[in-house]
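Dear support,

We are seeing what looks like truncated structure output for some complexes. This example has two components. We would appreciate it if you could run it in full and send us the complete token output so we can diff it against ours.
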Amino acid sequence: MDAGRRAVLKSGGGMTLLALVGAAGWLESEDASAQSWNKAAFDTHNLPDTMRALGGTEAARSGDIIFFQTPDIAENGAVVPVGITSSLPRTESIAILIEKNPNMLAAVFDLPAGTEPTVSTRVKMAQTSNVYALVKADGRYYVASKEIKVTLGGCGG
Amino acid sequence: MADPMKIRALLTGDTTEVKVLMNHEMETGQRKNAQGETIPAWFIQSVNVTWNGKTVLSAQWGPAVAKNPFVSFKFKGGAKGDKVSITWLDNRGDTRTDEAVIA
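Here is the complete output from our reference environment:
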């Protein structure tokens, strides 16, 4: 077997393929959403850019999105618990955005009908920052934010 | 091959709560090693959870999700003994699928 060719395929093939399918976006492809990764959205650095990359235009502030099990002060930025629940009807997805991280978007959760509009996870935060919960409900976007103070950053440095 | 996930699926009333703890480095690509070289990013990009073959949660992640990621969510339906299957795929093309029985 040609060892050089193997190595190239192994190192480069996966990334290129992911980059290509990622460009197709996640809103259009229901079934393929698990496989395609929206690289454009994960490369953004501010809220309007992230909105555009996710296929939206602008988000309305909403009091129906609530952070739970989320600290005001995180001692360790490497592990910050974030829980988001939305009481907006027909919530389709919940995204977590961290304003002052190198890349703003942390995670997008797609919620099919039947799944409750509540997710909780743990994220990394480079420094004290606003955290946005971006919720897509009934085709429109809503946002809520919360400041989390970080006493020890989670992104090396 | 990565270590298995820890999955707990618990039925309360008509709602199943799923909690999962995955084993993954989730390297950000921002850190440097002792020689000052950047450690390449290595993180889970997509997660898919199915119950009886129906997707109940799909997620896309960036490197900002914490090391050894934890997720919990709830879905309507489920019965004791049903299987919940979780698959992740990382940016190196590694993938892992684990199953749990709803209790």
